[in-house]
Amino acid sequence: MKIPVQINEDSAEPLYRQVENQLRSLIIGGKLQEGTLLPSIREFAADLKCSVITIRRVYQDLENEGWLRTRQGTGTFVTKVEQGQLTQMSEENVRKILNEAIQKSTALGWDEQQLQQLFAELIHQHFTT
Amino acid sequence: MQEQSVISLHEVYKTRGQHTIGPINLELPQGYITVLVGENGAGKSTLLNLMMQTIYPDQGWMTWFGQPAKGELPLSIRQRIAYVSEHSSIEENRMTALDAAHFRSQWYPKWNQKRFEQMLTEFQVPSTTKLNKVSKGQRQKFELAAAIATSPDLLLMDEPSSGLDPFAWKDMIRTLHQLMDTDDLSILITTHRMEEVERLADYVMLMNDGMIYGIQEKDTLYQTWKEIWINAGVGDADVIHSLHECDGIVAWEAQSDLSVRVITTNAIELEEAAAENNIPIQTRGLEWEDLLYYWRQSAWQYKRDPSSMKK
Fold first, then answer.
1. What are B29's strand-pairing partners?
2. Residue ranges of domains in chain B
3. Which of A87, B232, B266, B279 can bridge B259 by disulfide, Cβ–Cβ 3.0-4.6 Å?
4. What does the alpha-carbon distance between residue B31 and residue B28 come to, in Å, rounded to a whole number?
5. May I ask the CATH architecture of the domain A15-78?
6. pLDDT one-digit tens code per residue, B175-194
7. Looking at the domain covering B224-308, what would its CATH class be?
8. Which residues from A are below 8 Å from B222, CB to CB?
9. pLDDT 10s digits, A25-81
10. What range(s) does the ABC transporter domain occupy (chain B) (predicted)?
């Protein structure tokens, strides 16, 4: 199966973190459901043109966080996650994204009022069109 | 985590005619694909020949799977290594794929005939045509199938893709991925094709002028080496110049429009320094050709003047 993960080559963010974040989001967002069998480490690495060292690290980290489980001989699966936990994780993710946007915007000289105005405008645009 | 090595070389030198390679110190990582790159004449084939002990080192010592050996490799080690070279053997020209396989299988206790025949079918290599009558791509795929049929612990490949058409090439890449997935082996492959670095490598090893300049995990290499553009007229010239002091800068090319193209091995540090000084920059991934070019160049610089390398 193809996992829709994309590596941004123009970013200095470590590849394993790029893949980890996207894979985690796919699970939290329900695109990868409980019990889904992930590709083997070599297969996934070949898909993304990265090394197995990166993918092994991604699977290990997400296993430690409780999102994945590896069963000897069968492969790596998405584990069961409680709905409450999903909601909480999803909020944490959104917070992180917004915080990043705020930090980057203030670095460009935007103040609180300007940001609030623009954000309100964008939300309005998104939900009314 | 300490990785084990399949083959190790310690202070190895070898002179052949005009060419000397060495000193070579190297641990080939176990369970991974290592891609060896370097220009023609860098010593890549000599290195592979040393690993096969078809030539012997003048100095230094080597181990295979942890065992030292001198002179011709003992059969017990030789049987665990498969070798695919750019040139196929002349002795097998008049044999069919099946004859040649039968001949080879006598040397290998773990020979897997079923797997061999499956691969021939899959690769569409005729099994009963003389090998000098099949196409170059088919001959090379026969070599690959025969190498894999020995169930090797180490697969050495010297420019296996030279002359392969894109279809045969794809077959080769796919087969190697599948093989790494099912078997516990290590692969060392020499190549000039950047797609092979991209698609196959876990580790990249750079050889130049008879020396190994480094062996690095591919993704680490790729994510730390970047091209960074500093736009023209975005800040004080002195401030911009101070970025030049950042660690890891391999090239600093001021353009005629006053923008600067920087190649760095430490993209994060430059990004952070630029952010602190409010200098907008753009980070770009490097093409593998460029990355290897600059890697080699920084190795040259280091060779001429070791103190030029900042820690």
1. B5
2. 5-220, 224-308
3. B232
4. 10
5. Orthogonal Bundle (1.10)
6. 999 999 988 899 999 999 99
7. alpha beta
8. 9, 15
9. 899 888 898 899 999 999 999 999 999 999 999 999 999 999 999 988 889 999 987
10. 1-234
